Queue: 2 jobs
Job 1
Amino acid sequence: MLDHVSVGVSDLERAARFYELTLATLGLTRLVTRPATIGFGKAYPEFWINLRAGMKPVAPESGVHICLRARSTDVVDAFHVAALGAGGRSDGAPGIRPHDRVKYYAAFVIDPDGNRIEAVTFPSG
């Protein structure tokens, strides 16, 4: 249903380092590099970071949240570790999230600009 998503960043190179390490755990690599934008994906740029000079950190109460699908719980764990190692902050450690309709396993991180990113998988059983 969605074709791609993008987030604003205040420092393109800092964000590129963060997202290269973090998204690699999900199988996404840098596919496109332009002066003010970088696209990541598997075969097509699905996730973009866009330079917004002078951007202030995203307010925690903004409600902005992007969730990316992971193949397994191990990948969700690796996503969280990579994000923290690349300068992100935890917004929810990896674990089962009970929900009224489905059980899912997820981790939540905040990038250096305050964007909230989640990795999720749906374990069987």
Job 2
Amino acid sequence: MKLFAFYCRDGEHGEIFREHSHDALLKHFEEHGEHFAVAGPLAKGDKIVGSLLIIKARDEAEARSRLEAIPYFSVGVWQSIRADEFQPLFGDWAGGSGQ
């Protein structure tokens, strides 16, 4: 299984869309949490400006499909999304060995 990092920046009305779909988001993660290495908001001070999601999948198409199933995607919270395969080298996710 590979890891894919999705760096998602909120659009102009992201705060309102987040508020209205937050319960659906929590339900989605309860049901599909095993597909995520980590997921959470990006902030500047007290303001949420986006999301970072590390999704586990066989390939980018599968990871993108999992991203598109998230309620924030369908209601238009995110204005822009960057995706890249993530290959942890050091730290907790890499087992700390760098190998």
